[in-house]
Design a protein that fits this description.
It is a single chain. This protein has helices at residues 6-23, 28-45, 60-69, 75-78, 110-123, 142-153, 174-178, 183-187, 202-210, 246-250; strands at residues 51-54, 130-135, 159-165, 168-169, 172-173, 193-198, 218-223. With 261 residues, the chain is α/β, with parallel strands linked by helices. The strands form two sheets. It has a five-stranded parallel beta sheet with strand order 1-2-3-7-6, sandwiched between helices.
Length: 261
């Protein structure tokens, strides 16, 4: 594991944006909202025997770029993202991609899978840690709450749940669809430790994720911005679905920019 520097994160963000633009595919906004956390977990917290579950499978691009930043996926493979016959599909496949444990994208199921991994590690006497990244919209799914009850009941201290709370989902804001503005207050009574941090502040996330916690799962709620890194797309609903236009790509303004592919 090596420290995540702002320059490494900036390079990954640039590569993610270029990859999505070249593929002419959507879901870029939700990829950008969770990229910082995904990079930090993989670079600084995820050991060789640990496991990561991406429950919000539509952010597969951020996971692929994170693996690229660690030297596990070559750059020429990223060029096949979302193309016919690629291993790097728009949602993670069931096998064949480094760092992918399960095919995900049917939202609300990832936390159950991660809790199962954490319980299995305990039964085997393993010190394995399990990290699960969920969207905030997934907390409108009953299966997510069932998994939380299971994890709390079994006091799965090896499990860390990271929530990308960008406030937007497929059909509007989470406030409009099913209000969970104070998600941390709703989760806390389930006998788990809950911490909050700015999802685009590396030091704040380090403190929230890395500080020792008591028995049972740790839930870290991250305040994030959909489309983070592209000023014209921050907080925009259409960044959930629509691909980045040529005009938006050419007119972007962030560190480390390159010419459009």
């Amino acid at each position: 594991m090596t420290a995540l520097t702002p320059s490494k994160l900036s390079a990954a963000r640039e590569r993610l944006i270029a990859m999505h633009f070249a593929a002419k595919t959507g879901h870029l906004g939700g990829n950008l909202s969770c990229l910082d956390a995904m990079m930090l977990v993989h670079h600084e917290f995820l050991g060789p025997d640990d496991r990561f579950v991406l429950s919000k499978g539509h952010s597969a691009g951020a996971l692929y770029v994170t693996q690229w930043s660690l030297g596990r996926i070559p750059d020429d493979a990223l060029a096949t993202f979302h193309q016919d016959g690629t291993a790097l599909a728009g949602h993670p496949p069931s096998h064949g991609v480094p760092g992918v444990e399960f095919a995900t994208g049917s939202l609300g199921h990832g936390l159950s899978l991660a809790a199962g991994l954490a319980l299995a590690a305990r039964l085997r006497g393993s010190s394995r840690q399990v990290f699960c990244l969920t969207s905030d919209g997934e907390w409108q799914e009953g299966s997510t709450w069932e998994a939380l009850i299971f994890a709390a009941h079994h006091r799965l201290s090896a499990l860390t749940v990271v929530i990308d709370q960008n406030g937007l989902q497929g059909f509007g804001t989470t406030r409009e669809v099913a209000s969970l503005d104070r998600l941390q207050d709703v989760i806390a009574p389930f006998a788990v430790e809950v911490r909050c941090a700015d999802g685009h502040d590396l030091d704040a996330m380090r403190a929230a994720i890395g500080r020792p916690h008591g028995p049972g799962p740790l839930v870290v709620v991250l305040a994030t911005r959909k489309g983070n890194g592209i000023p014209s797309h921050v907080g925009r609903m259409d960044s959930h679905y629509l691909p980045l236009t040529k005009e938006a790509y050419a007119g972007r303004n962030w560190p480390g920019r390159t010419e459009a592919p």
